[in-house]
Amino acid sequence: MAGGQVVFDLDSGRGVLVGLRTVSATVTPPCRARGVRLTGAGVYAVVGPDVTQLVDSTIDLDTLAPSPLLRRIRDGGAQCDDFGELIVALCCRFEVDPRVLRAESALQRGASCPDAAAAAGVNRRKLVPLFRRHVGINPKAYQRLVRFAGAMAALRHSSDQPIAAIAAEHRYADQAHLTREVRQLTEVTPARLACLPPGPVNHLPVDGTTR
């Protein structure tokens, strides 16, 4: 499976976080269990950047969740409220490095990568692996996506604004630069995006429709 699972064995009282892409197996003898499926982002929220180490493996919940909560679940048979509290407790474990948060905020405001590194209080060489570890891409790629998202929103919601003006507003060198970027990331032209009716900016035309 692409995500993970939190599974609680009601007979043995053991709970585990099942890692990404773990192969399913038949339990013998059968046992009573309760669980919830997590997306990849959900597993990331529990274990942080080390999520890739959980491919085809498990972690005991005893090492992740508060002991009083686990005892309550064992005694009560994983009632809905208690199980929901367990998921919340697990997903609140990981905290993003504050330096990454400062850099990300600066990039969202349109800062350059060197300026984002300065805002984070580290040099650019140190920021790049730190940012990639927490976000999944490097600061330059993130900056590119932030700029593109702003331009795409303008194209979708400001059909009367010249594309050249949108390019200048969102820090593209010229209209041709914006056109190349849009075609590379969406496989359509800025003019095609501008003709679409207003809607969610993350929905792009596919086969003449918006999905």
Describe this structure in words.
The chain has 211 residues and is of the alpha+beta class. Helices cover 50% and strands 11% of the residues. The protein contains ten helices and six strands, in the order E-E-E-H-E-H-H-H-H-H-H-H-H-H-E-E. It has helices at 40-47, 67-76, 80-91, 98-108, 113-120, 124-135, 139-157, 163-169, 175-186, 190-195; strands at 4-9, 15-18, 33-38, 58-60, 205-206, 209-210. The chain has a four-stranded antiparallel sheet with strand order 3-1-2-4. A two-stranded antiparallel sheet has the order 5-6. Helix 4 packs antiparallel against helix 5. It is elongated and about 65 Å long. The protein starts with a strand and ends with a strand. Mean pLDDT is 79; it is low at 207-211.
Number of strands: 6
Order of helices and strands: EEEHEHHHHHHHHHEE
Strand content: 5-15%
By secondary-structure content and strand pairing, the structural class works out as: alpha+beta
Describe the SSE topology.
Layout: E1 4-9, E2 15-18, E3 33-38, H1 40-47, E4 58-60, H2 67-76, H3 80-91, H4 98-108, H5 113-120, H6 124-135, H7 139-157, H8 163-169, H9 175-186, H10 190-195, E5 205-206, E6 209-210
Antiparallel strand pairs: 1-2, 1-3, 2-4, 5-6
